[in-house]
């Protein structure tokens, strides 16, 4: 197994990070403004590029009161899939942060433009790869007769992602189906002496 590594060092405190630790060439290659690349691994056997990143901003905005917060409450390890490069998978590994709002004291997870909330792939992966796979509709149809793990292996995706896409499309299908039925059912009954009851709906 051949792995080329720049020997990433786990970082848990932004204050210990200096500009010299940033790989500017890899950061420019990645092309995501929210991230700077600290190091990377190249797994030639598995055909994978793994970028160890750090979020570029030192603050987040509270979703409740819109106050800017720099008080980091917690770090959480994340690994997300990005668009492939030279027929190799690309993964981003970073610590997403939870902040404590100084005004309303709400603890919240920072939001990123390049990655939807609680997703395991970037937006550009979704926009570029899923359409080529037939979109969520195709993933949904594949899951109807197979397990999430089998579909994930077939489509070369994480099975948690396949599961989420399936339920997302299932909910969409259910909402569409319910719209086919009348939301309000009215009934008018006309009664006449000596005649049958006539009902119109």
Topology:
Layout: E1 3-5, H1 24-30, E2 35-43, E3 48-55, E4 60-61, E5 68-69, E6 72-85, E7 88-100, E8 107-109, H2 123-129, H3 135-144, H4 148-155, H5 159-178, E9 188-190, E10 198-200
Parallel strand pairs: 3-7
Antiparallel strand pairs: 1-2, 2-3, 4-5, 6-7, 7-8, 9-10
- Write down the Rg: 25 Å
Strand-residue proportion? 25-35%
**Number of strand segments:** 10
The helix content, as a percent range, equals 25-40%
- Which parts are unreliable, with pLDDT below 50 for 5 consecutive residues or more? 8-17
Helical run tally: 5
The outline comes out as flat
| Separation, N- and C-terminal Cα atoms | 71 Å
Key traits:
201 residues, single chain, 5 helices, two-stranded antiparallel sheet, 26% helix, alpha+beta, six-stranded mixed β-sheet, 10 strands, 2 domains
Summarize the structure.
The chain is an alpha+beta fold.
Describe the structure.
The chain has 201 residues and is an alpha+beta fold. The protein folds into 2 domains: 1-113, no CATH class; 130-178. The protein has helices at 24-30, 123-129, 135-144, 148-155, 159-178; strands at 3-5, 35-43, 48-55, 60-61, 68-69, 72-85, 88-100, 107-109, 188-190, 198-200. The strands form 3 sheets. Strands 1, 2, 3, 6, 7 and 8 form a 6-stranded mixed beta sheet that branches. It has a two-stranded antiparallel ribbon with strand order 4-5. Strand 9 and strand 10 form a beta hairpin. The longest helix has 20 residues, at 159-178. It is flat and about 50 Å long. The termini are far apart. The model is unreliable at 8-17 (pLDDT under 50).
């Amino acid at each position: 197994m051949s792995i080329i590594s720049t020997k990433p060092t786990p970082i848990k405190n932004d204050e210990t990070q200096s500009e010299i630790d940033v790989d500017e060439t890899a950061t420019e290659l990645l092309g995501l403004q929210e991230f700077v690349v600290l190091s990377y691994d190249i797994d030639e056997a598995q055909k994978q590029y793994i970028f160890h990143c750090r979020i570029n901003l030192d603050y987040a905005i509270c979703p409740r009161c819109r106050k800017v917060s720099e008080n980091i409450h917690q770090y959480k390890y994340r690994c997300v899939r990005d668009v492939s490069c030279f027929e190799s998978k690309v993964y981003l590994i970073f610590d997403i942060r939870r902040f404590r709002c100084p005004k309303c004291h709400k603890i919240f997870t920072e939001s990123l433009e390049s990655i939807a909330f609680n997703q395991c792939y970037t937006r550009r992966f979704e926009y570029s790869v899923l359409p080529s796979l037939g979109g969520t509709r195709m993933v949904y149809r594949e899951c109807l007769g197979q397990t999430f793990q089998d579909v994930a292996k077939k489509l070369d995706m994480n099975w948690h992602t396949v599961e989420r896409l399936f339920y997302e499309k299932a909910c969409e299908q259910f909402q569409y189906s319910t719209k086919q039925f009348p939301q309000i059912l009215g009934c008018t009954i006309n009664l006449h002496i000596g005649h049958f009851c006539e009902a119109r709906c």
